[in-house]
Amino acid sequence: MADALTAWYLAAYDVCKMWASQPVTSLDELARALPPAPETPHLDLDAFTAVVSQDCDWDNGAIVQEFRTEVNKFLQLALPNSPLLMPSETPWHSKGVFQLIFEILLLEDITQLQAELVAILTQTIILFGRNGSSMMVFCVILRLVHGWGRAAVREETLWISDRFHKAVIRAEEYLNSGMYNPQDTYEVTSVRFYRTCGRTCVGGHY
User: Fold this and answer.
1) How do residues 104-148 score in pLDDT, each as one tens digit?
2) What is the pLDDT at residue 51?
3) What is the b/e burial string over 27-55, where b = at least 16 CB atoms within 10 angstroms of the residue's CB?
4) Measured between alpha carbons, how far is 95 from 84 in angstroms, rounded to an integer?
5) How many helices (H) and strands (E) does the chain have?
6) Residue 163: how many CB atoms within 10 A of its CB?
7) Which of 129, 165, 152 is nearest to 31 (CA)?
């Protein structure tokens, strides 16, 4: 059964990678393109992690540090009262990027973390590219279609899928527009990016 589940993960993830290269396709279409599962695929975290890490080094020290630095700068600048900045036994910046994304897309109550969610998603796309998009859409589609995580909180699930899709499209537009310059200061990058992406993605609470 474990081998069959891993084989399904691999086949489904290949579909997600194809979607990430053309993210204008709706998530409904992506769901229909998933390979048939022998049964409702349950979460085997070890197998899932191995599959989504095959093309992406989530532990790349330099990228992880840049990710944490940029997200923290955004939180300090735009969301100084964010719950993510409050004292915690397991602060967000102590977690690996993969763990952070997995938890916020599937396990966290994001009622008070909506702008933070969009910031984390978009920074992941900027730094990890389509490998990051592939992993995130895999989480989102498994929540939507196969009931992973907090899928029973339907309104939240639909909100996350909508904002995720918008974030991917806007981030792709931003990166391809010539506006993004990795040598820019954070303040310049954040203003440019959230002008073109953040407001569109964050607006509207579920």
Assistant:
1) 999 999 999 998 998 899 889 888 989 999 999 999 999 999 999
2) 93
3) beebeeebeeeeeebeeeeebbbebbeee
4) 12
5) 9, 0
6) 23
7) 165
The pLDDT confidence band at residue 90, using thresholds 50, 70 and 90, is: very high
Which residues are within 8 A (CB) of 135 and not within 5 positions of it... i.e. 6 or more apart? Answer: 16, 52, 56, 98, 101, 128
pLDDT tens-place string over residues 10-59: 999 999 999 999 888 899 999 999 999 878 888 888 999 999 998 888 98
The two tokens of residue 110 are 């994001």
The span from the CA of 100 to the CA of 90, in Å, is 11
Six-digit token string for 177: 């527009």
> What does the alpha-carbon distance between residue 120 and residue 70 come to, in Å, rounded to a whole number?
9
Going by C-alpha positions, the residue among 107, 70, 66, 72 that lies closest to residue 92 is 72
| Cβ neighbours of residue 129 closer than 8 Å, sequence gap 6 or more | none
> 25-28: long-range contacts (C-beta < 8 A, 24 or more apart)?
26/165, 27/137, 27/140, 27/141, 27/144, 27/161, 27/165
pTM for this entry: 0.86
C-alpha 142/C-alpha 138 separation (Å) is: 6
| Residue given tokens 């891993």 in the structure block | 6
What's the CA gap between 34 and 28, in Å, rounded? 10
